[in-house]
Design brief:
2 domains; 6 helices; alpha/beta; Hect, E3 ligase catalytic fold; 11% strand; 142 residues; four-stranded mixed sheet; elongated; HECT_dom
Length: 142
Amino acid sequence: RREYVDLYLNYVFNKSIRKPFEDFQRGFLRGCPTRRWKIFLPAELQIVLEGHTKFDWHLLEKDVTYDCCNKTDRIIRNFWAVFHKLPEEKKKMFLAFLLGSDRIPGYGLEPFTFTIVAINYKNPDEVFLYANTCSHILFLPR
């Protein structure tokens, strides 16, 4: 029985996925042709490729830059007050809106910054906030 279980497990976890894994590996190495991937442990490589999944939201707030406003403006204080009351899932949705991904890039939160630009409109109630995902800019109507 032990031999059967060992052979079965070997088939399920190794032989049955060998071809799909080799195809994936070939495609991955074609897109990322470097031998340096081997320096990473699997968990580290996952962070580099997918980004961080755990966040310090107060650190994120600390590193924001402001344009046409400053962190003491009422609109900014209100924004962060509402943001910090959001559940974790909604905060991740905000990241997805701002970055195009619900994860912080693999280099971490400390060097990561985004900009909030407060914009004056004649009727701000008729304007939605929007983001430039490439430049990490949030345009916030006053």
